[in-house]
């Protein structure tokens, strides 16, 4: 719900998600009748003849995802079909949040239901990225009233986190470079009294050499940096969250074709996920010692570009031969994961728009998830299914580690052949994670190529809510 129109200002201050779901104090509101196919006929018997005629005219039968407008006294009511009234999903109200007229609404389910999960879709159905539109978003908000007061805050916090990811990913690279990512991190750190540290220039070259090499070709205004935030009780379990912050990816000297560059503003989608997840951790007061790391760069083309065949030094001491400059995300993550491991965290989660291979295997909706520990992987799978943010596990198969070998260095960043690209990239990252550390990696798309209820085309959070649900269960 971005409301920011000043393109010089990287901050985002859109519609407050918390305003879109409010406690029911018996305000005047339009009823939304929730029905499913199993309950439809019984519900229909209680409607007036005029309402039944309106339903018939709109061919409404209670199918999930359908809705109809029916007369109700001097106003109207809404009939909405859901898969199962007793178990509402996150997105069952997403379309209604988008298409209904502005005003107040109240759920009137036919049967018992808990609506809390559906609040997220209601709010996110109203998301608009209007930063560059002259008229902005002039729509009157649709406000849902509920008696489930305790469910409002956590649901709206998740909706706000998703909206943050969308805002950041949707912003063009000219207005969201490494400096603007740093600014977003500063805002979050300041709001939660966290410590922020940013490494740039000569210190970056020394401490995070692969981050420096990948980002050194960019203009000075988009100079590379490592952004770190620390928060929480130092005695609490340590949690590290890492996000790939490639603010634009030209491919470097192995330049992408123009068609592949069109949405490369989204290549910082991992950083957006990491920032949003870290904010959820801090604002909820989760009992952890948080370490957020975002290597922020632009993979540009200039006389300073790193080259195919170059050998890069890493923070871990490993040397990396460059097989392809378009496999840059794993390089900057390597330095970040090394730094994260130095704190000996109980868990590392990283998010990255890392490989096209993951999209070929799983499509745009399912983030590829890799994990060292089976119980961590299962916890993420279960959490994703429970909150309608599914992820899919792919293997860290030891047999493919030999494909990372180099003739002249410790490893190669992009071996020839192209087989199992997502797994090989994950195995590359695994070399930089400390021995024995519990680690999970999300290869997420961070983009929705076609709209779905509650999920417009453009930047989106995929795997964020699954990770948050898992962290709440593990540390909450």
CATH homology-level superfamily of the largest domain: Zn peptidases
Compute the average pLDDT: 95
Number of helices: 15
Radius of gyration: 24 Å
The main β sheet shows up as:
9 strands, mixed
Distance between the termini: 29 Å
Got a strand count? 20
Number of domains: 2
Work out the helicity level: 25-40%
What would CATH call the architecture of the largest domain?
Answer: 3-Layer(aba) Sandwich
State which percent range the strand residues make up.
15-25%
Low-confidence stretches: 1-14
Overall spatial form: elongated
Category by helix and strand content: alpha/beta
What name is given to the CATH topology of the largest domain? Aminopeptidase
Describe this structure in words.
The chain is an alpha/beta fold. The chain has two domains: 17-149, Leucine Aminopeptidase, subunit E, domain 1 (3-Layer(aba) Sandwich), CATH 3.40.220; 172-475, Zn peptidases (Aminopeptidase), CATH 3.40.630. Helices cover 32% and strands 20% of the residues. The protein is built from 15 helices and 20 strands. The chain has helices at 40-45, 49-57, 94-99, 118-124, 149-170, 178-191, 201-207, 209-215, 258-261, 269-284, 329-342, 356-362, 374-386, 421-430, 464-475; strands at 21-23, 30-35, 67-72, 75-81, 103-107, 142-146, 195-199, 225-231, 238-243, 245-249, 289-299, 311-313, 319-321, 347-352, 368-371, 392-393, 411-412, 439-443, 447-448, 458-459. Strands 7, 8, 9, 10, 11, 14, 15, 16 and 18 form a nine-stranded mixed β-sheet that branches. Helix 4 links the parallel strand 5 and strand 6. Helix 4 (118-124) packs across helix 5, helix 5 runs antiparallel to helix 10 and helix 13 packs across helix 15. The two termini are 29 Å apart. This is Leucyl aminopeptidase. Residues 324-331 form the Cytosol aminopeptidase domain. Belongs to the peptidase M17 family.
């Amino acid at each position: 719900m971005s409301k920011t129109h000043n393109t010089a200002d990287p901050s985002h201050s859109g519609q407050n998600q918390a305003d879109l779901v409010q406690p029911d104090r018996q305000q005047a509101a339009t009823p939304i009748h929730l029905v499913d196919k199993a309950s439809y006929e019984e519900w229909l018997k209680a409607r007036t003849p005029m309402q039944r005629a309106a339903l018939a005219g709109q061919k409404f039968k209670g199918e999930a995802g359908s809705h109809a407008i029916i007369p109700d006294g001097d106003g109207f009511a809404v009939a909405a079909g859901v898969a199962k009234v007793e178990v509402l999903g996150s997105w069952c109200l997403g379309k209604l949040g988008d298409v209904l007229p502005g005003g107040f609404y109240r759920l009137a389910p036919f049967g018992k239901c808990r609506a809390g999960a559906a609040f997220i879709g209601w709010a996110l159905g109203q998301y608009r990225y209007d930063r560059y539109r002259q008229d902005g978003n002039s729509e009157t908000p649709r406000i849902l009233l509920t008696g489930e007061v305790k469910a409002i805050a956590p649901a709206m916090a998740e909706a706000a986190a998703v909206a943050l990811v969308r805002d950041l990913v949707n912003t063009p690279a000219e207005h969201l470079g490494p400096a603007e990512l740093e600014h977003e991190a500063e805002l979050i750190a300041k709001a939660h009294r966290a410590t922020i540290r940013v490494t740039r220039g000569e210190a970056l070259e020394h401490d995070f050499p692969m981050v420096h090499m990948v980002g050194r070709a960019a203009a000075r205004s988009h100079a590379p940096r490592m952004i770190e935030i620390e928060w929480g009780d130092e005695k609490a379990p340590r949690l590290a969250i890492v996000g790939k912050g490639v603010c634009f990816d030209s491919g470097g000297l192995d330049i992408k074709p123009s068609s592949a560059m069109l949405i490369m503003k989204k290549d910082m989608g991992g950083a957006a996920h990491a920032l949003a997840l870290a904010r959820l951790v801090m604002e909820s007061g989760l009992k952890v010692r948080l370490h957020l790391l975002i290597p922020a760069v632009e993979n540009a083309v200039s006389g300073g570009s790193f080259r195919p065949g170059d050998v890069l030094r890493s923070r871990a001491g490993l040397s990396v031969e460059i097989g392809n400059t378009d496999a840059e995300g794993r390089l900057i993550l390597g330095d970040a994961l090394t730094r994260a491991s130095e704190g000996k965290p109980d868990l590392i989660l990283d998010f990255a728009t890392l490989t096209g291979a993951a999209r070929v295997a799983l499509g745009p909706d399912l983030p590829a998830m890799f994990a060292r520990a089976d119980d961590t992987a299962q916890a993420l799978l279960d959490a994703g299914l429970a909150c309608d943010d599914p992820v899919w596990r792919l293997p860290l198969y030891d047999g493919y580690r030999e494909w990372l070998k180099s003739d002249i260095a410790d490893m190669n960043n992009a071996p020839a052949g192209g087989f199992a690209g997502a797994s090989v990239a994950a195995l590359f990252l695994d070399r930089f994670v400390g021995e024995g550390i519990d680690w999970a990696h999300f290869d997420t798309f961070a983009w929705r190529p076609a709209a779905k209820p509650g999920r417009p085309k453009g930047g989106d959070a995929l795997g964020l809510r699954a990770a948050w649900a898992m962290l709440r269960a593990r540390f909450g």
